[in-house]
Design goal:
Elements (H helix, E strand, L loop, with lengths): L16 H34 L11 H34 L179 E5 L2 E6 L3 E4 L3 E4 L4 E11 L8 E6 L2 E2 L5 E2 L13 E11 L7 E8 L8 E11 L12 E12 L3 E2 L4 E6 L3 E3 L7 E3 L4 E11 L7 E7 L2 E10 L9 E10 L5 E7 L5 E12 L2
Antiparallel strand pairs: 1-2, 1-11, 3-4, 4-10, 5-9, 5-11, 6-7, 6-8, 6-10, 12-14, 12-22, 13-21, 15-16, 16-21, 17-20, 17-22, 18-19, 18-21
Helix pairs in contact: 1-2
């Protein structure tokens, strides 16, 4: 480490203020150089322990790594404390005045404004001075008088009025609580045809009518009037009707014969009636006839169909920090947007083999030829690493556009992009083209490569994945979907940080959301403050309501 070159300072100090400040800045720079050597030494310790530094033939034991980590951590804490002191010293030096220049020349005095003075009047006649009288003799000082009586204490003044109470501060805004989106309701099959209703049974005969009750007692005749020639008097009231016993109810007729039950109607077809789940050991679930497994690697699909496929694969490597990739191929050709990278392998707790997993998904159409189409999942171990092993694979595939039906997922799309593109903060990631677009509810144009247009007042499910190269060490990359530039926070995905910044990492996310009544634009946005280099991106969208 170089030594500071300080001039010889005699007892009669001849340094100027500028020289003193320059020497202070030079001393800070030399201390920073020394700290840099210390940090470099700690880095070389790590390289030596990990075997990347020349001279090590045996790997370091795990206990030694722990001791080395503690030593380096203590040293870096000391370096950080020293950096804070140097930063404070540098700030104070930069805030001080280096030197004071000479006082500038005084500017010329301005001319005095004109002010007219009136003519002076004539002086008056000075009067004659009177004769000064003789000074009289000083009289004797009189005796001091008695102290007067102390007066009564005055009345205490009235208490002043109490000041007005200050206004109450405004209540803080209540934070909003976002409710998660409701899960998708499975599609209901068409109801079967109702069976033929059986014939109505014969109505039973009416029971015999009961006998009529006897007449009531006739009322007494009214008294004859005294005048035989007079007109007759009013007729007396009619006697009450006689109440006879009610006849017995007739017997109930026999019940008619129940008609035959009609045949059960055929069960309606679901849009996902054709689906399957394949695992490493074979087929776990297989419904319908348009998806079948041939051998252990070929999935046979019906032509002119739309499928949605998801996969995940677990793998192991001899050493930690390795990255594998996987992709889907249809008839031997890569399906754009299906390729993904794993997180770096790590050592799980209680195991002795580094493992990681890779997952992805894509929407795609099968061509008319060949019949059937062959779907394959292809894995790529880390470059230059032998001994990598794919230990578990799971593939889930569903047909989402059934023939002779009009499902809500008739509107679906798969849009992808690839190539090295630098994307600044809060800027959408551009796409290249649409691999699949069915229906009119989703549209994409290369003229606006960052925008996916959606129909108004609809419900969509969107999933995405991406591969990026941050170019900055230890930087996690955050990506999410936005609808009309409003973040869909449930879709946030974070790619893990990389120690070198030059390798590739990736992530995936999804969201269910409603569109508004007007224009709706879906975007995939980089939310890092730093500019990120994106290698590939893929979005799968289905209208579900």
């Amino acid at each position: 480490m170089s030594q500071p070159n300080v001039p010889n300072i005699t007892p009669q100090i001849s340094l100027t203020r500028e020289n003193a400040i320059t020497l202070l800045l030079a001393s800070i720079a030399l201390e920073e150089l020394g700290l840099g050597h210390i940090v470099n030494t700690e880095a070389e310790k790590i390289q030596y322990a990990l075997g990347t530094f020349q001279g090590l033939t045996q790997p370091v034991a795990l206990s030694d790594l722990f001791l080395l980590n503690t030593s380096i951590q203590n040293m870096l804490q000391t370096v950080i404390q020293k950096e804070m002191l140097l930063c404070d010293t540098l700030t104070r030096i930069l805030d001080s005045e280096v030197s004071t220049g000479p006082t500038g020349l005084t500017g010329p005095t301005g001319t005095t404004g004109a002010a007219a003075t009136g003519a002076q009047g004539p002086n008056g006649i000075t009067g004659s001075t009177g004769i000064t009288g003789t000074t009289g003799s000083t009289g004797t000082i009189g005796a001091t008088g008695p102290v007067g009586v102390t007066g009564a204490t005055g009345i205490t003044g009235a208490t002043g009025e109490t000041g007005l109470t200050g206004a109450t501060g405004a209540t803080g805004v209540t934070g909003s609580s976002v409710t998660g989106a409701t899960g998708l309701t499975g599609a209901i099959g068409n109801p079967g045809v109702a069976g033929v209703t059986g014939a109505t049974g014969t109505t039973g005969s009416t029971g015999v009518t009961g006998s009529t009750g006897s007449d009531g007692i006739t009322g007494d005749t009214g008294i004859t009037g005294p005048c035989p020639d007079c007109p007759p008097g009013p007729t007396g009231p009619t006697g009450a009707d006689g109440i006879g016993p009610t006849g017995a109810t007739g017997a109930t007729g026999l019940q008619g014969i129940t008609g035959f039950t009609g045949a059960t109607g055929a069960t309606g077809e679901l849009i996902t009636v054709n689906n399957a789940n394949f695992i490493t050991v074979g087929t776990q679930t297989e419904n319908g006839t348009s998806i079948t497994l041939q051998g252990l690697s070929n999935i046979l699909l019906t032509p002119n169909k739309t499928y949605f496929c998801e996969y995940n694969a677990e793998f192991s490597t001899p050493t930690v920090g390795r990255v594998a990739s996987a992709e889907l191929r249809l008839n031997g050709v890569l399906i754009p947007g299906s390729q993904t990278l794993s997180f770096p392998t790590a050592m799980p707790l209680g195991q002795n083999t580094p493992t990681a997993s890779v997952s992805g998904g894509v929407l795609f159409n099968t061509p008319a030829s060949p019949n059937p189409s062959v779907l394959q999942l292809v894995g790529f171990p880390p470059l230059g690493v032998s001994g990598a092993n794919f230990s578990g694979v799971n593939v889930r595939i569903s047909e989402v556009n059934a023939v002779n039906t009009a499902p809500v997922t008739a509107n679906n799309a798969a849009i992808y992009g690839y190539g090295y593109v630098n994307v600044p903060y809060n800027t959408p990631i551009p796409f290249l083209e649409a691999e699949v677009i069915n229906g009119t509810g989703i549209s994409f144009s290369q003229a606006t490569p960052t925008v996916i247009s959606l129909a108004p007042n609809a419900i969509y499910f969107a999933s995405y994945n991406f591969i990026e190269c941050p170019l900055i060490a230890n930087l996690p990359v955050r990506v999410l979907l936005t609808l009309n530039d409003v973040p869909l926070y449930q879709s946030l995905s974070v790619a893990p940080p990389l120690t070198d910044g030059e390798s590739r990492s990736g992530g995936a996310g999804s969201a269910v959301f409603h569109t508004g009544p007007d224009t709706n634009e879906l975007k995939l946005v980089n939310t890092n403050l730093e500019e990120i280099k994106f290698v590939a991106a893929n979005v799968n969208i289905m209208q579900i309501g």
